[in-house]
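Hi C.,

You asked whether I'd gotten around to modeling the 1285-residue construct. I have! Everything is below, sequence then structure, no commentary in between.
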Amino acid sequence: RCNGAPGQSGVGCYAMDVRPFEGLACSSLTFVPGTGCDCNTEVQGATVVLEGGDDANALDCTACPPGIAATYVNDAGLGWSLQLRGLASLDAYAAAIASVAFRQTQALVPTADGCGHPHAVRWNFGPARYRHELDGHLYGVVEPYGRAQTCFDLKSDPVLADACTWGMAQRTCADPARDILGLVGYLATHADPAEYRYVARPNTETAFVGRTDADVEGEWRWVTGPEGCPDAYDPAAADHFLRSGCDLQLTNVTTTFDPCVGASCGKGTLVGVQPPPPYTARSFISAPNQMPWDEASYPHDIRQWTNTRLTGQDYGRATANAQVDSPYKILNSRLPVHVCEWGGVGTLCVSPDSLSQRVEIDTLPSLACPTLNECVADCPTCERGVCDGHTPEQRCRDTDPDPSSVGDWECRCSAPGMAGAGYGAAAVCYSRQYYDECTEVCTSCENDKCNAAGQLCIDPIPSAPARGDWLCRCPFSVHDHSDTQGALADCVLDECDSGRVRRAVCAAADPPQACTDPSTSVLHDWVCSCGAPLTGFAVAAVSACSLDECTAVCHTCAGTNCSQAAQACVDPDMAVNATSDWMCVCILPEVGTAVARTAVCILDECAQTCGTCEKGACAAAAAAEASEQRCNDTDTDASALNTWVCMCVAPFAGQAPTIGASCLINECDAVCGTCANATCSDAAPPQACREPNASPTSLRDWICACLDPLNGTAGQTAASCDLDECAATCASCSKGTCANAVPPQQCDDPDISPAALSDWACLCPPPYAGNGTALPAVCTLDECSASCSTCAGGVCAAAVPSQLCNDPDITHTALADWTCRCVPPFSGVQTNSTARCALDECAATCNTCADGVCIKAVPPQACDDPVPFADTRSDWTCSCVAPAQGAPAVGVPAACVLDECTAACGTCAAGACPAGQACLDANMSAAALLDWECVCHLPAAGRATGAPAVCVLEECTAVCATCANRTCDDVGQPCTDRNPLATSLGDWQCDCPAPFITTTPVQGGAAKCEIDECSNVTCGTCANATCSDAGQTCEDADHDSSALLSWVCACPPPFAGAASAQPATCLLDECTGRCLQCAVGTCSAAQQTCADDHPGTLGDWECRCVPPSVGAPAVADVALCALDECAVSASGGIPGGMVCGDAQQSCEDLDVHVPDTWRCVCIPPQTGATAGGAARCSLDECATNHTCASCANGTCAAAQQECREGSTLAHALGDWECVCHPPLQGVAVGRAAVCLLDECDVSLAQMCTTCENGVCRAAQQRCTDVSTLPADTGDWVCSCPVPFS
């Protein structure tokens, strides 16, 4: 169950969620007549105990009525209990107990022995924790101050230390505020070891119980409760001690001790005798400056009675966990813990089963645990008759029937007035004074006769001698016979008589019910019966009436609607308030229901067996063709028959009406064991799946086919794909590139695997040669070796003389450029035809050549062949050799003369004219000598007679091989000849005209000119301050003179933007930029976002709040963001409001502009606050500035007492105390204290003028205060010590 609803999981979910006392109500309690108790009687609290509890279980009271606080605690050794506290009526507490839930937070598994996990939940009114299973008494632990060290810090606060004494413990138990419905509390007693173990069970510390050995050392007697002083009970006693304990007024500590008032009490029930310790007992008054209980300097047996306060070691204790008692333990004169018992003192105003109830819960109810009753079984550890045949009579009792708990049986004394038990052996029985035949088990006892008849048992004299005097009383005031001892009462009462509560209960029901009493002699058998048309009855309670609208007659009932339509009528919820929910239900094979009307019936011919139904035809057809088919009724109207079809079940497809379908399966689309199942689509590269035959008998015939442009197929597996890039069309394919080339070429793909892409090639057709990979080939044609219309075709070889063929450019566009070249001694070349071969007859050797005729002449002459061709022979001439001169002669030597410029002679120039100058002999006669001169060759200028000339050549203006020849003019550059001498040629250069600059001078050529259009120059294409006037930077990325207008205007940082040859539009995102006006992390430092909606405008950025924070944006500043962390969590977690709300506290955000400033604040009157989490609340119930249900609310102040808060923890309610102001003494929890004044107390000497103040002690006498009431002052007396009188 999760939050009360079944079938969920998560937080708030439980493996078991039950309310064991859900039916409890105050009306179910039985009150004892004449006691004045009813449902309005107020009690201080109740306790619900979980026996066998652990961390996987819990009790809670989420629906407790107002004024009742629930606290679930696990005190060490005390177990788990839900403590309900607060002054409220029995009616409110019964409702609170009924709402208590037992929850199991995790599912359990069987134990090793196969058992379930039984738990028991028990409740009782009052503060007690446990109930004795035999006598029904209640037990509880009281810790007035909670800390043991408080009791031993005597010198710092002796008043507090007195609260830990045995006498104060008895007062606490007997305090009227701790009464439980008429039962008076007292320090616990135990009649035998079994009960002692039970008394010690709820205790984790050594605690006081109600016995003492103050009369005879080592002789312990009960002095509280029914075993100690039954005649001492005084409900009006001012001293709570006397309400259920002996009046311990001692006149002689060592010789006389009468712990009871009245002769019948004697000396109290004897508990047992313990030998005195091996040292001399001493009785004395403490020395000066020592407290009476200072045991450090004296033997153990220090005793002193002073106004019912017992000090020293004369008291009884129950040790922790029922261990062996040690009555002489040092430092136990003050104990912070004591065990209170309720039962046997006072008059219980309700029946025992109305005081406490116990319910067992098995968390694994289907498993039963084995049991072993050693009193009746036969086993090595069993009783086997040990308890039989004893006098007084004994009976066997197995304390724990668990098979793992063996040897735990005991013999218990069962004779009237006897007590005692023996574990695993016969008991030692002893007499008990107090004997209540209504609770004891004996031959003459009541033994539940009264309870079984619903009557109350009363034992007027609860003692052993008065046996058989018990009687049963009717639990109401009217009966027709007087009480009879030892027998049931004859009770007569018509519980439904007019004026009786039971009749009013039935009449007050909604709707009213009739009350009947079938037997006037039996109680609680009255019946509430529902009136027509309703049905139902309940015994001793209002009936849960029902209304069957199918059979009843009412305005909302079915009537004959369903039967007239031949349909059945059903009422699913017969609750009285569940009207108009009847349904008409169709009769099979038709189905259908309708609420409060006739149903529309349907007939599913696939689901039923009828004349037109399917009857398995689909399954038979499926089996025949190895497919699977299911039936579907397309129209389920009962009148629409033969509308069913057989539909093939995936992966098959198809359907057929009223017959089996022919199913098909496309193994490419379906998912099945034989299907492709993405085999093709998951291939690399992906492939297409093809189904050649969809018949279910033709399986595993699917194929994978490669997708265009790939080629390839394979059956039942992925195909191996190939790619011919010459034939396909793809990103890497040829796509006709070769065919469209010039000349058209052939495409070839040497590797057609898909991985080998772009490896296709274009091949040139014959007679061309060449290829190109992934592009057209560059084709070549050697016209000398090929055969084509433009080729040489052997012409050169056929020429006379024979010639050699050569193609200087073999590209396919260079045709008819072949040449014929003559073979030596011939020379010559001719394009696209045979050459005319040249033959120099002076140099060659042939039959027509000069063969040295000229050189053999005197003087030797030079030979010259003017027409050196093969077809012009014998035309060679001899020419005069310098210095001789003469006209050449054909075929013979020439007639030569002397030229000084050419001749070698004493007056000849003899090479005096250097290169670049010519020698001129104007008169070659013998008489005209030394008249030769050197004349500079053009275009140089200069001449000199008889010596070399100084030649000058201006290469910028002249025309020559090395001159500028308009080179500079053509590029618009001026020409400069660095050295005009003819010997310094080729040193001219072109210079760049302004505003261009020469970056790389080139000697003998045009200069490389550059220009920075952003520099301080003025030109038609330059920036000319365009950028600077706009406050921008000019940038020219390319200074070459050919790249003009390449400059841009760039915005200065932090602005961004640039424009070519014009001013830029500048932008600035102030959220990302860095400038004086920019955000520069201002927003991010405040955990806000920055936004600049107008990057062209400065100072307009904004800081904006990040959700869930809210706030208006701030321009050029941090925004003022707010986040109420009580409503929303900044980190995305649980908001503070939910955290505080779960703790029932208020949430407060101290500063919505600062994160992590929320806190939980306790709701007044509680105080406390904690940042970032639930607060630890405190409640000072003594404070005067507030009131609450559990607070003192001025109680102590009204009594002129001091209010002290036991614990300010919010769950520790009602623990405030009223403390009397010194010299008065007294303390009470949750009420005004009863203040006393002990005028014999030496500690009050400085605070009391009427006190003894050491007068008796100075005379070595004992001081006794006759009355400790504050009004009775000056009544102290001095008494002589023994043996004086």
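If it helps when you're writing up: The longest helix spans residues 90-98.

Thanks,
B.
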